Every structure is written in C-alpha cells, then in structure tokens.
Amino acid sequence: MFKMFDYYKKSRTKSFHLFSILSFALIIFVITFSDRLISNFSSSHSIAFVSKNSSEQPLRSTFVHKSILSKKEKIVKEEEEIEDHVNLMPLFNLTEEQRISWFKKKLTEFSILKSTRLSRQFSSRVNKFFNTKSCRVQLFMTWISPANSFGRREFFALETLFKSHPKGCLIILSRTLDTPRGARILSPLTQLGYKVVAVTPELSFLFNSTPVESWFDDLKNGRKDPGEIPLAQNLSNLIRLAVLYKYGGVYLDTDFIILKDFSRLRNSIGAQSISANGNWTRLNNAVLIFDKKHPLLYKFMEEFAFSFDGNKWGQNGPYLVSRVVERLMTSTQKNQLNFTVLPPISFYPVDWIRIPGFFMKSNTRSHSRWIEAKLLQLSGETYGVHLWNKQSSSMKIEQGSIIGRLISEHCLLCKDIYSS
C-alpha cells in the first residue's frame, strides 16, 4: 500500500522547480511498478488495477471475469502440463512396493486426480451443454496430453466428425483443453456454429456408484500400484467407460477420420481383427457406442477394477473389452445384454502394421489401382478409419495417398492437409 506524503507541508521553502522534479519522479515510480506490486494483491482478490496514461488520473480497479486466467496462472498451467507427462512416470524395473512408495510421494503432482473448483462443475456443465443444445447424437472424446500437442491430425478428426454429424454435440473431457488456449484451438469450429466444448472431468463424480469407485479411492490414497505405463493413459480407458455409463452416447479416440454418419448405431463395439472363418479375434475400445447405464459397460468397469495392471499395454483397454465379451459369448447372458460386435471394416479397416500404406502416394500403376479399389471399399462399408496414432503420428500425409484423399473429401476447413 502506497503512502502519500504532503510535500507542501514539509518543503514550503523548496522551490517550485524542485517540487516538479520530485512529483514527476513519483509518478514515473507509480506507473512503472504499480502493475507488479498490485498484481500480487489482485491474484488473491480477483481484482486487476489499471493505470491511466495521464498523471492526473488516479488508479482505478475493475473486476476480472473468473474464466480469464492471469499470465501467472497460464504459466503455472503450462508447467503443470509438462510435469504431468514428463516427470510423472516411475523408473522402470522397480518393484511394486517401490512404485507405490514413489506414487505416494508424487500424489500431489497428479493433477488429473485433483478435485478443483472447475472440475466440481463437471456435472452441471455437461447437463447444461446437452440440454441447451439440439443434439442429434452425444459425442465424447478424451484428451490427457498438453494442449499444445493437440495438432492438425487431431483437428482433422473433429472436422470430419462434424462434417458427418453437423448436429452432433461433442464434449472433450480434458483438463488441458478446458483453458483459454484450448478454447482458441476449438474456436475455428465453434465460430462456425459447431457444438464442441472441453470440460474438466471430476473423476470422483464419474466413478461414484460404479464398480470402480473403491478402486479409485484406493488409487488416489496411494494404496494401488499405478504401474509403469503413464497413469493418465490407463485412466483414459476408464473415463470413457464411466462417461458413457453416466450419459450414454458415442466415445471416439482423437485419431480417426470419420467418413459417414453413425448416429443410428446402437450398443456397438468394433472388432479390430477377425479369423479366417469370420469370427472376431480382438476387439478395440477406440470407438464405443452405448446407451446410458448399459450393463456391458458395467461389466467392463468390473473387469477394470478386478484385473487392473498398469504394467501391460492394452491390459486395461482393448484386451479388457475383448476378455469380457469373449466370456459373455459362451455364457447365458449373451443375448440378454443386447449389443453388437461390428466387423473391422466399420472402424478398423486397416491394422496398425499396415497403416503406413495409407499415408503413401501412388508410386506404380498397380499401387494406384489398389488405392482406388481401397477408397471405393471404404466409401461403402466404413464409418471411420482409425489412424493408429502411436504408429502413424510421425508419418507425413503424402499427396494422393488414401489418408490425404479421405481428409480432403471429408474435412470442413481443410487447412494444411499435407503439412501435418
């Protein structure tokens, strides 16, 4: 708090020239340092102070809207994003006991587990979004990585999704995109009237009254081994099950190119591969289409809590849904659960080993004929193409390739297709 001095009483014998110099120096001091000094005060009182250019104008205060972050808060958020995905992984080859000990020490740094003012608004924000929009289909995605890694490939997934579902409503469950930076990333779509929003999830709410409630309670209290695989990745596998169980709709990974409307599909999961006799051999959880409170989702969550292993890739995702459905196929509950296993051509027309061929341009006449035949096949039987981002993220989309042509035909803004 600045103290004002009466220079006239103390310096009546001073010349007017000296008074002017001192006054000017004081004004410069206030203008130079007021923002820095008062910003500390404003961060705790939600008030920002603005100085006028004229020295005759006093400092005035204005209230800042709560959704606007200060520069300091933005820096903190960016630092948290980096920490979540760089530092929050245990060393390999630790024992279970050592990992649990490490996890307990790091618990406070796992922001995905924290309940915040924003996350506690999750239920009301989701309900408001769906209830005030005219939604033909409820769509969900998750984004657990920093906002700055949400790139052109991911944005093409949104573009092609809305090209096929212009009246769909998409919620991206993400702490990092539920920020001013995330709003800017999504703004090219929202400015066109498409209904998409990022919402910070409240995991305690999502998992409440589900089979994973006690599992999550043990986890956030440091009584579970998180495993060597990044915890956020495994939690993403669980979040998609819980959000569909609570609300119903469609879950999609962000590494898809959507080709046509699938809003008429109900209670479906896609096969990733099939055997020579046509029976599925592996399911995948990158696309899930289920009604609210569907019993199969409940069984998936039961399996997650019972068999969680954070050291095996796929154990809590694709392998989990495959295990549960395989058991049901031989049980009396098969017909009672009312669900469909879609063939690979629906969402997984190419497996992760062969995905590089979809990014390559034609080099020979026979290759050109193969591309044309594949595009014709996809146009008739495929709802979307999974890009297997873990394998394809570093691949350049070549002009004339299958992926390049699919994006060109199904995008909205269609910017920088071949530079992504």
TrEMBL record:
UniProt superkingdom: Eukaryota
Start and end residues of each Alpha 1,4-glycosyltransferase domain: 290-415
SUPFAM superfamilies assigned: Nucleotide-diphospho-sugar transferases (SSF53448)
InterPro entries xrefs: A1-4-GlycosylTfrase_dom (IPR007652), GlycoTrfase_DXD_sugar-bd_CS (IPR007577), Nucleotide-diphossugar_trans (IPR029044), Put_A1-4-GlycosylTfrase_plant (IPR044789)
Pfam families: Gb3_synth, Gly_transf_sug
PANTHER family: ALPHA 1,4-GLYCOSYLTRANSFERASE FAMILY PROTEIN
Protein name: Alpha 1,4-glycosyltransferase domain-containing protein
Organism: Capsicum annuum
